[in-house]
Amino acid sequence: MLDCRNVSVSYDGKTVVEDVSFALAPGDCLRIVGENGSGKSTLMKGLLGLLPLSGGGTVFCVGRNEVGYLPQQTPARGDFPANVREVVLSGRLNRRGFSPFCTRRDRASADENMERLGIASLAGKPYRALSGGQQRRVLLARALCAAGTLLMLDEPSAGLDPLAVSQVDVLLEKLNQEGMTLVVISHDLKSAAHSGGKVLHMRKKALFFGSAEDYAETALYRRMTAPEGGCGF
Ligand code: ADP
Questions:
Q1: Are residues 156 and 232 in the same domain?
Q2: Total structural domains in the chain?
């Protein structure tokens, strides 16, 4: 499904992701964890082809046009003119190839995903007028519209209230059960270790890649989640 070999990414000659290799099978759920600045978002952008790889690494991904991506939270630009429905529909652009026209299926997918995320009533509102949490749901609905087989999410819960966080968790679990492959950046080491899926722990390099059960047994995980001086966000 996703095969990432010796991937390195640099900014202005400074390497921030170094020699990361892992592979996912269809239906896997990977949590990428690590401290702030450990290279998680940069790795995801490298996997998506949004940043060039440095060195001779390769990324092979099945169904490249059907990957949904939720970027890290960034404030909406004040002049961003689209309404909620248009933003969600824009998730279908890659699937349409060169056709400028929305199909009935595109519109149905947008409606279904707005419904799933509880934002159907906001469909006609300007995106920029929404709260941070509402904007997050809109972007998640857009990513779902794009995702045929693989969904990459950079901290999907950032900026959401606790109820919305658990709703998103339930949604992701359901999508994964339906066969969607997930790659999710998370601050939460403990829930990653108990997720039942796979874990990649980044600190510029991949310090660990394997099953969540094995991760929970590592000295790395114990040290990071120790009450005294650990860094278990
Ligand atoms: P994480 O997602 O784990 O918090 P990032 O991938 O955002 O980490 O950042 C990894 C490192 O790359 C950090 O040192 C960060 O300061 C640096 N970095 C991130 N984005 C850029 C950028 N656009 N230009 C230069 N350096 C960057």
A1: yes
A2: 2
- Ligand 1 test: best mutation among 16, 50, 201, 224, most atoms within 8 Å of CB? 16
* Mutate-to-test residue for ligand 1 from 8, 11, 15, 70, highest number of ligand atoms within 8 A of CB: 11
Q: Residues 1-38: pLDDT tens digits?
A: 899 999 999 999 999 999 999 999 999 999 999 999 99
Share of the chain above pLDDT 90, in %: 61
Give the residue numbers spanning the domain of 110: 78-148
Q: Taking the model in full, what pTM does it have?
A: 0.90
Distances (CA, A) of 172 to 27, 157, 178: 12, 11, 10
- Name which residue sits closest to atom 25 of ligand 1, judged by CA: 11
Tell whether 161 and 233 lie within a shared domain.
yes
Partners of 202 in beta bridges = 206
Q: Is 42 in the pocket of ligand 1 (CB under 6 A)?
A: yes
